[in-house]
């Protein structure tokens, strides 16, 4: 007997409730619950249950890895964050804001793979075949191995995959796909969970590499993040300022490679171009005139050191509560740094607005940028200029001490190759670096500020 019931599901994290809740107990999101209907009975079976693995256990030493386990896309920045290429049978989630370049990147990848005699099925759930063809012409993709399939029904997509037996499948996008086994509308957590489970079983059972494109919410999170991120093998975010041409591809989860790796692209009229030397581009955008409130930091994104400029603006406010605004830097971390500056250095900012900006549209999440932010704020407040050939590296503790950071030697090598002559770094043990760059070791925040003042006076 078939029985239909309803439940309330948080569209952010997938938390389920028997009734409506204003605030989700799991992710604390407000107004995210939607009612979804479910069907239970003897004749209901999820399509994912059709894929049953009857293989017997194998000894680890008896398992042979295929020599072609990784297939390079020949897009260097994409291969970097994937760990060398697309792993066979993997399920990859590519997420980003609308218009950031997700479809462009996947179509360019399809063109490269098709040139290597790979068969691709491109499922377009949001665009017609003519629209996809128009983009392919703009990207100068001409091949006979790409099949375009405008479809939103998961069962029909599954049938075409079985008939074509492609090497790669592209789903654009997962929020527009629906399954007949779920009563809720397309884009709901239940639909995303069901469709993604079906794609995962297809990828694993048939050894088909699948790239799933996902949208992000207004808060910058993937719709249904808990559901998708736990199912897929790799999670990649497409970031960037929509008013600039540069795009960042960031790996947040990767079962086949390093996490927190980034790839950098430039959006051009004929598609995305790989940026092999991003430091040169970011430094070229720096103002040629030295002004207070500017500091150069060397962050470490995955295996790549990046040199970026942090700008600070400190000004008086007519309001009782001063403003704290950040662009590309964590707000809570800024508040911690300002508290340390006030308590350990004596810099009172309670009557002043503080603005922080990371140039180039990059989001910095690494603690090694703390010292650069603190020095940018302090020098702007005291109208002091930091030497333009000095880089700042270090993490700030609550007592004002400067903590060491990892990969310091690699950061110094990158700074030297980019033309910098000195570096303010945490005082640490024996440093395995013999390059020709002046090292200024500091123990506390006040020491770093004093060192920069002396550099600026010269």
Please give a handful of descriptors for the protein shown.
458 residues; alpha/beta; Rossmann fold; Ribosomal Protein S5, domain 2; 9-stranded mixed beta sheet; 7-stranded mixed beta sheet; 11 helices; 23 strands; globular
Topology (elements, then pairings):
Elements: E1 3-10, E2 16-17, E3 33-40, E4 70-71, H1 76-82, E5 86-87, E6 91-96, H2 102-115, E7 120-124, H3 129-138, E8 146-150, H4 154-164, E9 168-172, H5 189-206, E10 209-215, H6 225-231, E11 234-239, E12 246-254, E13 262-268, E14 271-274, H7 278-284, E15 294-301, E16 304-316, E17 324-327, H8 331-345, E18 352-358, H9 370-381, E19 390-392, E20 395-396, E21 402-403, H10 408-417, E22 422-426, E23 438-442, H11 445-457
Parallel strand pairs: 6-10, 6-11, 7-8, 7-9, 9-10, 15-19, 17-18, 19-22, 22-23
Antiparallel strand pairs: 1-2, 1-3, 4-5, 11-12, 12-13, 13-14, 15-16, 16-18, 20-21
Helix pairs in contact: 8-9, 9-11
TL;DR?
With 458 residues, the chain is α/β, with parallel strands linked by helices. Helix content is 27%, strand content 27%. It has helices at residues 76-82, 102-115, 129-138, 154-164, 189-206, 225-231, 278-284, 331-345, 370-381, 408-417, 445-457, and strands at 3-10, 16-17, 33-40, 70-71, 86-87, 91-96, 120-124, 146-150, 168-172, 209-215, 234-239, 246-254, 262-268, 271-274, 294-301, 304-316, 324-327, 352-358, 390-392, 395-396, 402-403, 422-426, 438-442.
